[in-house]
Write a structure and sequence with these properties.
Layout: H1 9-36, H2 39-49, E1 55-59, H3 62-76, E2 81-83, H4 86-90, E3 102-106, H5 116-124, E4 129-133, H6 139-143, E5 146-149, H7 165-185, H8 189-192, H9 199-204, H10 208-211, E6 220-221, H11 227-237, E7 241-245, E8 251-256, H12 257-262, H13 273-276, E9 278-279, E10 283-285, H14 290-298, E11 306-311, E12 314-320, H15 321-326
Parallel strand pairs: 1-2, 1-3, 3-4, 4-5, 6-7, 10-11
Antiparallel strand pairs: 7-8, 8-9, 11-12
Protein backbone atom coordinates (compact mmCIF):
# COMPACT_ATOMS: atom_id res chain seq x y z
CA UNK A 1 0.00 0.00 0.00
CA UNK A 2 1.33 3.40 -0.95
CA UNK A 3 1.38 5.80 2.01
CA UNK A 4 0.75 9.44 1.02
CA UNK A 5 3.41 11.93 2.09
CA UNK A 6 2.20 15.19 3.55
CA UNK A 7 4.61 18.11 3.51
CA UNK A 8 4.24 21.59 4.84
CA UNK A 9 3.87 24.15 2.01
CA UNK A 10 6.73 26.25 3.36
CA UNK A 11 9.06 23.26 3.50
CA UNK A 12 8.04 22.23 0.01
CA UNK A 13 8.85 25.64 -1.46
CA UNK A 14 12.14 25.76 0.42
CA UNK A 15 13.15 22.32 -0.88
CA UNK A 16 12.25 23.26 -4.45
CA UNK A 17 14.22 26.50 -4.20
CA UNK A 18 17.29 24.62 -2.99
CA UNK A 19 16.97 21.98 -5.72
CA UNK A 20 16.58 24.59 -8.45
CA UNK A 21 19.55 26.53 -7.15
CA UNK A 22 21.68 23.37 -7.19
CA UNK A 23 20.66 22.61 -10.77
CA UNK A 24 21.37 26.19 -11.86
CA UNK A 25 24.82 25.94 -10.26
CA UNK A 26 25.57 22.79 -12.21
CA UNK A 27 24.24 24.35 -15.42
CA UNK A 28 26.65 27.25 -14.89
CA UNK A 29 29.47 24.74 -14.53
CA UNK A 30 28.49 23.04 -17.78
CA UNK A 31 28.33 26.40 -19.57
CA UNK A 32 31.81 27.21 -18.30
CA UNK A 33 33.06 23.81 -19.45
CA UNK A 34 31.61 24.31 -22.92
CA UNK A 35 33.32 27.69 -23.25
CA UNK A 36 36.67 26.41 -21.93
CA UNK A 37 37.08 23.48 -24.31
CA UNK A 38 40.04 23.74 -26.65
CA UNK A 39 42.01 21.58 -29.05
CA UNK A 40 43.08 19.24 -26.26
CA UNK A 41 39.79 17.36 -26.50
CA UNK A 42 40.30 16.89 -30.25
CA UNK A 43 43.88 15.74 -29.59
CA UNK A 44 42.65 13.15 -27.06
CA UNK A 45 40.03 11.92 -29.55
CA UNK A 46 42.68 11.49 -32.25
CA UNK A 47 44.95 9.56 -29.89
CA UNK A 48 42.06 7.26 -29.03
CA UNK A 49 41.12 6.79 -32.69
CA UNK A 50 44.68 5.64 -33.37
CA UNK A 51 44.77 3.11 -30.54
CA UNK A 52 45.13 -0.59 -31.23
CA UNK A 53 44.11 -1.28 -27.62
CA UNK A 54 41.57 0.14 -25.18
CA UNK A 55 40.87 3.28 -23.21
CA UNK A 56 41.43 2.49 -19.52
CA UNK A 57 39.37 4.77 -17.25
CA UNK A 58 40.39 5.19 -13.61
CA UNK A 59 39.61 7.31 -10.59
CA UNK A 60 38.86 7.28 -6.87
CA UNK A 61 35.67 8.05 -4.96
CA UNK A 62 32.96 9.84 -6.93
CA UNK A 63 35.36 10.26 -9.85
CA UNK A 64 35.65 6.47 -10.01
CA UNK A 65 31.89 6.15 -10.44
CA UNK A 66 32.01 8.71 -13.25
CA UNK A 67 34.98 6.94 -14.84
CA UNK A 68 33.08 3.66 -14.78
CA UNK A 69 30.13 5.31 -16.53
CA UNK A 70 32.36 6.91 -19.19
CA UNK A 71 34.00 3.53 -19.85
CA UNK A 72 30.57 1.97 -20.33
CA UNK A 73 29.49 4.76 -22.69
CA UNK A 74 32.64 4.49 -24.78
CA UNK A 75 32.42 0.69 -24.98
CA UNK A 76 28.78 0.83 -26.07
CA UNK A 77 29.51 3.36 -28.80
CA UNK A 78 32.32 1.60 -30.61
CA UNK A 79 35.41 2.53 -28.55
CA UNK A 80 36.89 -0.41 -26.62
CA UNK A 81 37.11 0.78 -23.02
CA UNK A 82 37.46 -0.63 -19.52
CA UNK A 83 37.29 0.73 -15.98
CA UNK A 84 40.09 -0.10 -13.55
CA UNK A 85 39.81 1.20 -9.98
CA UNK A 86 42.99 2.86 -8.78
CA UNK A 87 43.12 0.69 -5.65
CA UNK A 88 42.74 -2.48 -7.68
CA UNK A 89 45.43 -1.27 -10.08
CA UNK A 90 47.84 -1.01 -7.14
CA UNK A 91 47.06 -4.59 -6.18
CA UNK A 92 47.68 -6.37 -9.47
CA UNK A 93 45.21 -5.04 -12.03
CA UNK A 94 47.88 -2.92 -13.74
CA UNK A 95 48.93 -6.17 -15.38
CA UNK A 96 45.93 -5.92 -17.70
CA UNK A 97 47.09 -2.54 -19.05
CA UNK A 98 49.44 -2.63 -22.06
CA UNK A 99 51.38 -0.22 -24.24
CA UNK A 100 48.62 -0.43 -26.84
CA UNK A 101 46.17 1.14 -24.37
CA UNK A 102 45.60 4.70 -23.21
CA UNK A 103 44.89 5.49 -19.56
CA UNK A 104 42.44 8.31 -18.85
CA UNK A 105 42.37 9.38 -15.19
CA UNK A 106 39.75 11.54 -13.49
CA UNK A 107 40.84 13.63 -10.50
CA UNK A 108 39.46 17.04 -9.61
CA UNK A 109 42.53 18.00 -7.56
CA UNK A 110 45.09 16.17 -9.64
CA UNK A 111 46.71 15.16 -6.36
CA UNK A 112 44.83 11.95 -5.63
CA UNK A 113 47.53 9.82 -4.01
CA UNK A 114 45.78 6.55 -4.85
CA UNK A 115 46.37 7.27 -8.55
CA UNK A 116 50.14 7.67 -8.16
CA UNK A 117 50.98 3.99 -8.65
CA UNK A 118 49.01 3.83 -11.89
CA UNK A 119 50.56 7.09 -13.14
CA UNK A 120 54.06 5.83 -12.36
CA UNK A 121 53.29 2.56 -14.16
CA UNK A 122 52.21 4.48 -17.26
CA UNK A 123 55.37 6.61 -17.24
CA UNK A 124 57.64 3.60 -16.63
CA UNK A 125 56.19 1.49 -19.45
CA UNK A 126 55.50 4.35 -21.88
CA UNK A 127 51.72 3.96 -21.78
CA UNK A 128 49.84 7.08 -22.97
CA UNK A 129 48.35 8.91 -19.98
CA UNK A 130 45.59 11.53 -20.08
CA UNK A 131 43.98 13.38 -17.19
CA UNK A 132 40.78 15.31 -16.57
CA UNK A 133 41.35 17.74 -13.68
CA UNK A 134 40.89 21.27 -12.39
CA UNK A 135 44.60 21.49 -11.60
CA UNK A 136 46.92 20.90 -14.60
CA UNK A 137 49.92 21.98 -12.51
CA UNK A 138 49.32 19.13 -10.05
CA UNK A 139 51.52 16.06 -9.64
CA UNK A 140 49.29 13.98 -11.91
CA UNK A 141 48.96 16.87 -14.34
CA UNK A 142 52.72 16.97 -14.80
CA UNK A 143 52.84 13.20 -15.38
CA UNK A 144 50.09 13.16 -18.00
CA UNK A 145 50.79 13.72 -21.66
CA UNK A 146 47.32 15.11 -22.31
CA UNK A 147 45.47 17.21 -19.74
CA UNK A 148 41.90 18.44 -20.14
CA UNK A 149 41.31 21.22 -17.65
CA UNK A 150 37.96 21.57 -15.95
CA UNK A 151 37.06 25.21 -15.26
CA UNK A 152 36.84 26.38 -11.67
CA UNK A 153 33.17 26.10 -10.81
CA UNK A 154 31.14 26.27 -7.63
CA UNK A 155 30.01 22.91 -6.29
CA UNK A 156 26.24 22.62 -5.95
CA UNK A 157 26.79 21.46 -2.36
CA UNK A 158 27.90 24.60 -0.51
CA UNK A 159 28.00 22.92 2.90
CA UNK A 160 30.57 20.14 2.47
CA UNK A 161 31.63 21.01 -1.10
CA UNK A 162 30.99 17.38 -2.01
CA UNK A 163 31.70 16.57 -5.68
CA UNK A 164 28.57 17.68 -7.51
CA UNK A 165 29.21 20.25 -10.22
CA UNK A 166 32.72 18.89 -10.81
CA UNK A 167 31.50 15.33 -11.33
CA UNK A 168 28.68 16.58 -13.56
CA UNK A 169 31.28 18.33 -15.72
CA UNK A 170 33.37 15.15 -15.86
CA UNK A 171 30.31 13.14 -16.88
CA UNK A 172 29.38 15.63 -19.59
CA UNK A 173 32.95 15.70 -20.86
CA UNK A 174 32.92 11.91 -21.15
CA UNK A 175 29.67 12.06 -23.11
CA UNK A 176 31.10 14.76 -25.38
CA UNK A 177 34.20 12.64 -26.02
CA UNK A 178 32.01 9.63 -26.90
CA UNK A 179 30.00 11.72 -29.37
CA UNK A 180 33.15 13.06 -31.02
CA UNK A 181 34.55 9.54 -31.35
CA UNK A 182 31.29 8.20 -32.79
CA UNK A 183 31.25 10.92 -35.43
CA UNK A 184 34.94 10.43 -36.24
CA UNK A 185 34.42 6.70 -36.68
CA UNK A 186 31.27 7.24 -38.76
CA UNK A 187 29.35 4.87 -36.51
CA UNK A 188 25.94 3.97 -37.92
CA UNK A 189 22.79 3.14 -35.98
CA UNK A 190 22.88 -0.41 -37.36
CA UNK A 191 26.41 -0.84 -35.95
CA UNK A 192 25.38 0.76 -32.65
CA UNK A 193 22.68 -1.87 -32.26
CA UNK A 194 25.35 -4.60 -32.08
CA UNK A 195 26.24 -3.24 -28.63
CA UNK A 196 22.57 -2.84 -27.59
CA UNK A 197 20.71 -6.00 -28.66
CA UNK A 198 18.27 -5.96 -25.75
CA UNK A 199 15.49 -3.72 -24.51
CA UNK A 200 13.67 -0.87 -26.16
CA UNK A 201 16.88 0.65 -27.51
CA UNK A 202 17.69 -2.59 -29.30
CA UNK A 203 14.25 -2.62 -30.91
CA UNK A 204 14.51 0.96 -32.15
CA UNK A 205 17.87 0.19 -33.77
CA UNK A 206 16.69 -2.87 -35.67
CA UNK A 207 16.85 -2.51 -39.43
CA UNK A 208 14.11 -3.58 -41.80
CA UNK A 209 16.41 -6.28 -43.13
CA UNK A 210 16.81 -7.73 -39.63
CA UNK A 211 13.21 -8.91 -39.42
CA UNK A 212 11.74 -8.79 -42.94
CA UNK A 213 10.12 -11.86 -44.51
CA UNK A 214 11.94 -12.90 -47.67
CA UNK A 215 12.46 -15.70 -50.14
CA UNK A 216 9.46 -18.00 -50.52
CA UNK A 217 7.54 -15.93 -47.95
CA UNK A 218 7.56 -12.86 -50.19
CA UNK A 219 4.09 -12.35 -51.81
CA UNK A 220 4.74 -11.63 -55.49
CA UNK A 221 3.21 -12.53 -58.85
CA UNK A 222 4.26 -12.02 -62.46
CA UNK A 223 2.81 -9.22 -64.66
CA UNK A 224 0.71 -11.70 -66.65
CA UNK A 225 -0.88 -13.14 -63.51
CA UNK A 226 -4.65 -12.84 -63.17
CA UNK A 227 -6.36 -11.11 -60.29
CA UNK A 228 -7.43 -14.58 -59.14
CA UNK A 229 -3.75 -15.58 -58.99
CA UNK A 230 -3.00 -12.44 -56.98
CA UNK A 231 -5.80 -13.21 -54.50
CA UNK A 232 -4.48 -16.75 -54.01
CA UNK A 233 -0.96 -15.37 -53.39
CA UNK A 234 -2.33 -12.82 -50.91
CA UNK A 235 -4.29 -15.48 -49.05
CA UNK A 236 -1.40 -17.95 -49.00
CA UNK A 237 1.25 -15.51 -47.75
CA UNK A 238 -1.08 -13.64 -45.37
CA UNK A 239 0.22 -10.08 -45.68
CA UNK A 240 -2.93 -8.53 -47.17
CA UNK A 241 -1.11 -7.55 -50.33
CA UNK A 242 1.00 -8.91 -53.17
CA UNK A 243 3.61 -7.32 -55.38
CA UNK A 244 3.70 -7.50 -59.17
CA UNK A 245 7.29 -8.10 -60.25
CA UNK A 246 8.64 -7.97 -63.79
CA UNK A 247 11.06 -10.50 -65.35
CA UNK A 248 13.96 -8.27 -64.29
CA UNK A 249 12.83 -8.36 -60.66
CA UNK A 250 11.63 -4.74 -60.62
CA UNK A 251 8.54 -3.98 -58.56
CA UNK A 252 5.86 -2.69 -60.94
CA UNK A 253 3.12 -2.20 -58.37
CA UNK A 254 1.13 -3.90 -55.62
CA UNK A 255 -2.40 -5.13 -55.08
CA UNK A 256 -3.89 -4.63 -51.64
CA UNK A 257 -7.18 -5.53 -49.99
CA UNK A 258 -8.25 -1.97 -50.75
CA UNK A 259 -7.58 -2.41 -54.46
CA UNK A 260 -9.76 -5.53 -54.48
CA UNK A 261 -12.62 -3.70 -52.77
CA UNK A 262 -12.40 -0.80 -55.22
CA UNK A 263 -12.62 -3.11 -58.24
CA UNK A 264 -15.00 -5.74 -56.91
CA UNK A 265 -17.80 -4.57 -59.24
CA UNK A 266 -15.56 -4.38 -62.32
CA UNK A 267 -15.45 -8.07 -63.14
CA UNK A 268 -11.97 -8.05 -61.73
CA UNK A 269 -11.50 -11.83 -61.56
CA UNK A 270 -11.26 -11.90 -65.35
CA UNK A 271 -8.67 -9.12 -65.44
CA UNK A 272 -4.91 -9.12 -65.11
CA UNK A 273 -3.26 -8.07 -61.86
CA UNK A 274 -1.48 -5.18 -63.59
CA UNK A 275 -4.85 -3.62 -64.50
CA UNK A 276 -5.92 -3.01 -60.92
CA UNK A 277 -2.56 -2.69 -59.14
CA UNK A 278 -1.43 0.45 -57.33
CA UNK A 279 1.50 1.89 -59.21
CA UNK A 280 4.40 3.55 -57.35
CA UNK A 281 3.54 1.87 -54.03
CA UNK A 282 4.99 2.91 -50.70
CA UNK A 283 8.26 1.06 -50.03
CA UNK A 284 11.25 1.20 -47.68
CA UNK A 285 14.97 0.42 -48.24
CA UNK A 286 15.95 -2.87 -46.59
CA UNK A 287 18.79 -1.13 -44.73
CA UNK A 288 16.50 1.51 -43.20
CA UNK A 289 15.65 1.43 -39.51
CA UNK A 290 12.56 -0.54 -38.60
CA UNK A 291 11.28 2.53 -36.76
CA UNK A 292 11.20 4.37 -40.11
CA UNK A 293 9.17 1.53 -41.65
CA UNK A 294 6.71 1.77 -38.76
CA UNK A 295 6.44 5.53 -39.28
CA UNK A 296 5.77 5.08 -43.00
CA UNK A 297 3.08 2.49 -42.33
CA UNK A 298 1.24 4.37 -39.58
CA UNK A 299 1.91 8.09 -39.98
CA UNK A 300 1.52 8.56 -43.73
CA UNK A 301 -1.85 8.54 -45.52
CA UNK A 302 -3.34 6.14 -46.29
CA UNK A 303 -2.19 3.92 -43.42
CA UNK A 304 -0.97 0.47 -44.44
CA UNK A 305 -0.25 -2.70 -42.52
CA UNK A 306 2.63 -4.02 -44.65
CA UNK A 307 5.45 -2.48 -46.66
CA UNK A 308 7.88 -3.94 -49.18
CA UNK A 309 11.60 -3.77 -48.38
CA UNK A 310 13.68 -2.81 -51.40
CA UNK A 311 17.16 -3.22 -52.80
CA UNK A 312 17.01 -0.40 -55.30
CA UNK A 313 13.95 -1.13 -57.44
CA UNK A 314 13.74 -4.81 -56.49
CA UNK A 315 11.68 -6.12 -53.57
CA UNK A 316 13.78 -8.31 -51.27
CA UNK A 317 11.40 -8.61 -48.33
CA UNK A 318 8.23 -7.43 -46.65
CA UNK A 319 7.49 -6.17 -43.14
CA UNK A 320 4.10 -6.31 -41.47
CA UNK A 321 2.89 -4.08 -38.65
CA UNK A 322 2.66 -7.22 -36.52
CA UNK A 323 6.40 -7.71 -36.93
CA UNK A 324 6.95 -4.35 -35.25
CA UNK A 325 4.69 -5.42 -32.39
CA UNK A 326 6.51 -8.73 -32.10
CA UNK A 327 9.88 -7.08 -31.45
CA UNK A 328 8.39 -4.53 -29.06
CA UNK A 329 8.72 -1.48 -31.30
CA UNK A 330 5.08 -0.47 -31.67
Amino acid sequence: MRIPVVIDAEHEQHALALARAAIRTEIAGLEALSQSLDGTLALLAERIIGLSGRVILSGVGKSAHVARKIAATLASTGTPAQFVHAADASHGDMGMITRSDLVLMLSKSGGTAELDDLANYCVRFDIPLALITQNPASRLGKAAGIVIELPAAEEACDITYAPTTSTTMMMALGDALAVVLMRRRGLKASEFRVFHPGGTLGSTLLSVGDIMHKGDKLPVVAPDASVSDAIIEMSTKGFGCTGIVGPDGVLLGIITDGDLRRHVADGMLARRATEIMTRSPRTIPAEALLSEALRRMTDETPKVTAIFAMDGTRPVGIVHLHDCLRVGLA
